[in-house]
Write a structure and sequence with these properties.
Length: 332
């Protein structure tokens, strides 16, 4: 073989190696670009704030909806277990696994006065009860791509006139439990990574407040007469003290006896709750949710406690659902 042929072959070999090298560099660059893009997507997802909702009130926000079915009490009717097994309603059946255990949400967390975890039945006033948080959490959890945190702050037997009294209402204000709403919400949001390791390094955004309260004001004429004014003060003051002007606020009606309610104080208190949502300053960011239609009679419920909605789980779930939908009407 002549020298010229050898040189030509060597040249072609060098060229092939060079082309292979260039192709390899391009491939690696493309791969690196894809990895960077994927990291950017993950980082962007992590940068989306956790949506936080404060659920506040007294015993009916705590929740008395019975979870386990007790055959000795109307055959278990009105309990969440009965609804999941026998009502034929998909939304209740979907709460339960095939083995009879309750599902946890993978995208909604809850903190309720020291009790915390992923949302599931059992975060009512007792571990075998539900309140509005369950229906509310399902609605907002299904809507948001971001994680959702529910902060539930509710105590039985508390009035707006005294216990939750907002600072701008004057008199002996602020009430002890008003102060708790503000301080505990702030602390939980500031220490979310400690309470929920999943949120370590994540930004949190307070997205709305749900309010279900009124019994301790409707049994006192003076408290009842001042309810509308006090509720308007509460909305303004919470927004100010939580640094969230225009924060969406949902008022769930105190309608525990259903459409048959006739007591003058009960009727006037519900009228006051509805009226606040119609204030010109609140029309875009406050919603009133009627609840009387969710009342279920004692004959199909676990108890005869009308002031606790007869402990009917469907009632509490429906109240939470309606509050969630009203909230989404504003935050969309």
């Amino acid at each position: 073989m002549c020298l010229v042929d050898c040189l030509n072959k060597e040249s072609r070999f060098v060229m092939m190696n060079r082309e292979l090298h260039i192709a390899l560099v391009i491939c690696l660059a493309s791969l690196e670009g894809n990895l960077i893009a994927q990291d950017a997507i993950v980082n962007a997802e992590n940068e989306k704030p956790v949506k936080v909702f404060l659920l506040a009130g007294q015993s009916n926000m705590e929740g008395a909806g019975v979870v386990p079915a007790d055959e000795t009490k109307n055959g278990g009717q009105g309990s969440l277990e009965y609804l999941a097994r026998h009502s034929g309603v998909k939304e209740f059946a979907d709460l339960m696994r095939a083995d009879g255990s309750w599902k946890e949400r993978s995208d909604v967390w809850i903190h309720y006065l020291g009790r915390k975890g992923k949302l599931a039945p059992g975060f009512g006033g007792r571990a075998d009860r539900i309140g509005p948080e369950l229906g509310f959490g399902v609605i907002v959890g299904d809507y948001f791509e971001e994680p959702v945190l529910l902060i539930k702050l509710a105590w039985g037997g508390k009035s707006l006139a005294v216990d939750f009294r907002p600072p701008s209402a004057g008199g002996d204000a602020p009430g002890t439990y008003y102060q708790s709403l503000v301080t505990e919400t702030r602390q939980l949001m500031e220490n979310s990574g400690t309470e929920f390791p999943e949120f370590e390094g994540r930004r949190l955004q307070l997205a709305g407040i749900g309010w279900h309260q009124g019994w301790n004001d409707r049994i006192n004429q003076a408290f009842n007469d001042a309810y509308e004014t006090n509720l308007a003060h509460l909305i303004r003051d919470l927004r100010r003290d939580l640094n969230q002007p225009g924060l969406p606020f949902v008022i769930a009606e105190t309608g525990m006896s259903g459409e048959s309610e006739t007591h003058p104080r009960a009727l006037s208190l519900m009228k006051a709750q509805a009226a606040v949502a119609q204030y010109p300053e609140f029309r875009e960011n406050v919603r009133f949710v009627g609840t009387r239609g969710f009342f279920r009679p004692a004959e199909v419920s676990p108890s005869k406690q009308a002031y606790h909605w007869n402990s009917n789980a469907e009632t509490y779930y429906r109240i939470g659902e309606s509050m969630g939908r009203a909230m989404l009407d504003m935050v969309r």
